[in-house]
């Protein structure tokens, strides 16, 4: 493998602010022409192969192994990142009307959209793409916003480029296919990637820990916290001058950007803000429950208060452990999600999260499964319970259990017999993640 070209501090900060970074592969035009030709033939003869695009067009591995692409992914997700089993070739035919702006759902999952970079997507063009061909368009700096109203305040930016252009985006960035007014079909191959271990040190070409990026949208404190997390440090936080009551009221404003500013201002107060945040969690979790359940692929723990509690860090841990015993399942699910977003910071909660794997509520089980995976090898004592979840009635819990076992790695060897059985799971992602886990365990 060629030496990866790692991102610079400025590039990582731009990614955290704007939600994307574009790199150019080093391959000669003939490589992209060949891939383009294979894709056109495949679509003409067999149709869209879906997740099978990579085995059907194995030359795409050259793109994934390109030093600029691999280096960017290592920089953002760590050197052990996973090429997720979901990938898709997007065909934008001549004369299409394009798409509406959207955020992608997590494939066959009920994930919570987190601010920390654990998931990315890459958009690869195998041919030159101009504006009239209907390129992918993004709304920059919208990756932290779940509200379309907030996202639409940004100006659309088209991702045109010559063959070999790869744009890596935060998984939650708002995007769409633009109308194709040309007489040529446009192809774009999308890949998903996920972090397999929590950051301990910077994995890019790191020279300076100071946050230098300018701008206040998205909130600066949110981006700076995401930067410090990727550096493996909590950094230093200056508490906001605003009174707690004022910040609490700001959590109820309609403007999502203002709520997120309040979230991180409260988080900077640490333990002092915990009573406010716990009350906010109880109210918000109940108030949004019906809406979140009605929205496809939306976890009930998709809450502003959850983001705030995650940002608080270690002081939130004992409170989340207490919430795991609450009567209301949506509070238990939120607690499990906060502990998962804290990752190794919450490593001493493994016994509590392990018990949560037997919760009657599937949302609690799902979030606890993910949390143990984020904690990583330290969660080895949970392997028997995670192995049992490989037989859960919900497919999205089964494939998350397999992914968590993959993150635990060799310490999850006890799960190998059950993982072998899941190779035949009816769900494609449960099958694929079982295979990933076996590989990562070394079986």
Description:
- The chain has 443 residues and is α+β, with helices and mostly antiparallel strands.
- It has 3 domains: 9-194, Sandwich (Jelly Rolls), CATH 2.60.120.620; 239-312, no CATH class; 339-443, Leucine-rich Repeat Variant (Alpha Horseshoe).
- Helix content is 44%, strand content 10%.
- It has helices at 9-18, 29-45, 53-56, 60-64, 67-77, 148-151, 220-230, 244-250, 256-267, 274-294, 304-312, 317-323, 329-342, 350-356, 362-375, 383-389, 395-408, 416-422, 428-441; strands at 20-24, 82-92, 119-124, 136-138, 157-158, 165-170, 175-177, 186-194.
- Strands 1-6-3-8-2 form a 5-stranded antiparallel beta sheet. Strands 5-4-7 form a 3-stranded antiparallel beta sheet, with no helix packed on it.
- Helix 11 (304-312) packs across helix 13 (329-342).
- The longest helix is centred in the middle third of the chain and has 21 residues, at 274-294.
- It is globular and about 60 Å long.
- The protein starts with 8 loop residues before the first helix and ends with a helix.
- The relative contact order is 0.10.
- The model has no long low-confidence stretch (mean pLDDT 95).
Mean pLDDT: 95
Strand percentage, roughly? 5-15%
What is the number of domains? 3
Percent of residues in helices: 40-55%
What is the first-to-last residue Cα distance? 24 Å
CATH architecture of the largest domain: Sandwich
């Amino acid at each position: 493998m060629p030496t990866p070209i790692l991102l610079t501090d400025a590039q990582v900060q731009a990614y955290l602010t704007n939600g994307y970074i574009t790199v150019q592969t080093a391959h000669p035009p003939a490589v992209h022409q060949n891939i383009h030709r294979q894709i056109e033939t495949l679509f003409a003869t067999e149709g869209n192969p879906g997740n099978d695009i990579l085995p059907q067009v194995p030359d795409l591995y050259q793109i994934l192994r390109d030093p600029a692409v691999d280096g960017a992914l290592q920089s953002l997700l760590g050197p052990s990142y996973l090429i997720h089993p979901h990938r898709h070739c997007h065909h934008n035919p001549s004369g299409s009307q394009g798409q509406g702006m959207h955020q992608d759902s997590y494939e066959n999952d009920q994930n919570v959209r987190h601010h920390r970079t654990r998931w990315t997507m890459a958009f690869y063009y195998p041919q030159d793409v101009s504006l009239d061909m209907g390129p992918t368009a993004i709304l920059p700096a919208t990756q932290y916003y779940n509200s379309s109203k907030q996202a639409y305040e940004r100006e659309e930016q088209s991702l045109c480029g010559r063959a070999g252009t790869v744009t890596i985006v935060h998984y939650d960035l708002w995007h769409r296919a633009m109308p194709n007014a040309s007489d040529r079909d446009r192809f774009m191959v999308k890949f998903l990637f996920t972090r397999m271990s929590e950051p301990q040190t910077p994995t890019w070409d790191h020279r300076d820990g100071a946050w230098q990026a300018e701008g206040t949208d998205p909130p600066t404190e949110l981006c700076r916290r995401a930067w410090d997390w990727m550096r493996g440090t909590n950094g230093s936080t200056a508490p906001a001058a605003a009174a707690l009551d004022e910040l609490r009221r700001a959590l109820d404003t309609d403007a999502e950007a203002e709520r997120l500013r309040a979230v991180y201002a409260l988080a900077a107060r640490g333990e002092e803000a915990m009573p406010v945040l716990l009350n906010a969690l109880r109210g918000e979790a109940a108030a949004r429950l019906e809406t979140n359940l009605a929205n496809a692929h939306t976890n009930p723990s998709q809450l502003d208060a959850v983001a705030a509690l995650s940002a608080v860090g270690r002081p939130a841990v004992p409170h989340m452990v207490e919430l795991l015993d609450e009567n209301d399942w949506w509070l238990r699910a939120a607690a499990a999600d906060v502990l998962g977003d804290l990752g190794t910071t919450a490593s001493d909660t493994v016994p509590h999260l392990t018990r949560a794997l037997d919760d009657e509520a599937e949302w609690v089980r799902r979030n606890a499964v993910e949390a143990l995976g984020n904690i990583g090898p330290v969660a080895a004592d949970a392997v028997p319970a995670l192995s049992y979840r490989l037989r859960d009635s919900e497919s999205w819990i089964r494939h998350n259990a397999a992914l968590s076992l993959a993150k635990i790695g060799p310490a999850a060897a006890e799960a190998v017999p059950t993982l072998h059985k899941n190779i035949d799971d009816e769900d494609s992602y449960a099958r694929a993640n079982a295979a990933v886990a076996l590989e990562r365990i070394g079986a």
